[in-house]
Amino acid sequence: MITSADNPKVKAARALLYRRGREQAGQCLAEGVRLIEDVSRAGVAPALIFFVAPAPDATRTIALLDAARAAGVPLWELSPAVFGTLSDTRTSQGVIAVAPIPAAEPEGDANPILVLDQVRDPGNLGTILRSAEAAGVTRLLLVRGCVDPWSPKVLRAGMGAHFRLSLQSGVSWAEAGQQLVGRLLWLADVRGATAYDLVDWTARCALAIGGETSGFSPEAAALATGRVTIPMAGATESLNAAMAATVLLFEVARQRRLANVNR
Fold first, then answer.
1. Where in the chain is the domain with CATH 3.30.1330.30?
2. Which of 251, 166, 247, 243 shows the shortest CA–CA distance to 202?
3. CA–CA separation, 11 vs 85, rounded Å?
4. What does the pLDDT look like over 213-262, one tens digit per residue?
5. Which positions ≥6 away from 72 have C-beta within 8 Å?
6. Please, which residues have CB within 8 angstroms of residue 128's CB and are 6 or more apart in sequence?
7. What are the φ and ψ backbone dihedral angles of 178, each rounded to 5 degrees?
C-alpha cells in the first residue's frame, strides 16, 4: 500500500489534474467504475489503476479490479488519505485509472463535423460530447478557448463518450478552416436568420456551437455559410449551449437517417 503523497507514481498522477500535466503526459485521470469500464470497452488500456481497498459488497469495483489484473494492468493500492489527493469527487468509488488520451482518428469525409468555440463550462461540454455521439456526429474540433475536454469534470459529464469520438482540441479558427474546406459551416446563433430545420444537413456540412457569453469571432464569421437559430415560443430568450447543441445535432441525425446518407 502506498501511504505517501510524495510517491513518484502518485505525484505523476496528481499532475494530470491540470491541463498542462495532461498535455505533457498525453494522459488523463478516469475516476469511477463506470468511466473506467467505458475506457476499457473503447479499446483503451489504462496505464495503471489506483484504488483503496473496496468493501466486500462493492462487487462491481472488485470485478473491475479483477479484470484489470487479469489483463495485466498494474494496480496500486493507496491509503484513503493519499487517494484523496487524486480524487476530484466528493463521494468517490475508490478507483482511478491513468488512461492515455487517444489521438484524433480520421473520419469519413461525408460525415458532419461539430466545431465548438468558447464552450467553457465543463458540464456543458461533457453533455455536448454525449449528445454528439448519440446523434452519430463523431468528429469534433474544439477551438482554443474551450475548457479542456480531458479535465476530470468534463470526463465525468461525458460518461465515456470521449473515448468513442475523434476529438481535436486547441485548434485555431485558421486550422479549423483548413479542415472545413468544401463544407457548409453553420453557426448556431440565437439571432440567426435561418431556422435550424430548414437547413439541408444531408450535405457536406459542419455545425459550430459557441459559448453562452461570447459570440463567434470574426474568423468564424468569415468561414460561415450562415447562422441558424432555434425558434422558441414564450419569453425564453435562449437555451444553454448543451441544450441547443442537442436539438441541432438530432435534427442533423434525423435528416441524414431519413435520407439514408451513407456514413
1. 8-100
2. 251
3. 9
4. 777 888 999 999 999 999 988 777 778 999 999 999 999 999 999 998 65
5. none
6. 114, 116, 119, 209, 241, 242, 245, 246
7. -65, -30
Question: Which pTM value belongs to this model?
Answer: 0.91
- The CATH homologous superfamily for domain 113-258 is SPOUT methyltransferase, trefoil knot domain (3.40.1280.10)
Q: What is 8-100's CATH superfamily? A: Ribosomal protein L30/S12 (3.30.1330.30)
Phi, psi of 219 (to 5 degrees): -60, -40
Residue range(s) in the chain whose domain bears CATH number 3.40.1280.10: 113-258
In angstroms, the CA 67 to CA 97 distance is 13
CA distance 72 to 94: 20
Q: At which residue does the C-alpha cell 473515448 appear?
A: 163
Output the nine-digit C-alpha cell for 73. Answer: 494492468
- Strands (DSSP E) found in the chain: 27-31, 48-51, 75-77, 95-100, 113-117, 139-143, 166-171, 184-188, 194-195, 205-210, 226-229
Tell me if 148 sits within 8 A of 22, measured CB to CB: yes
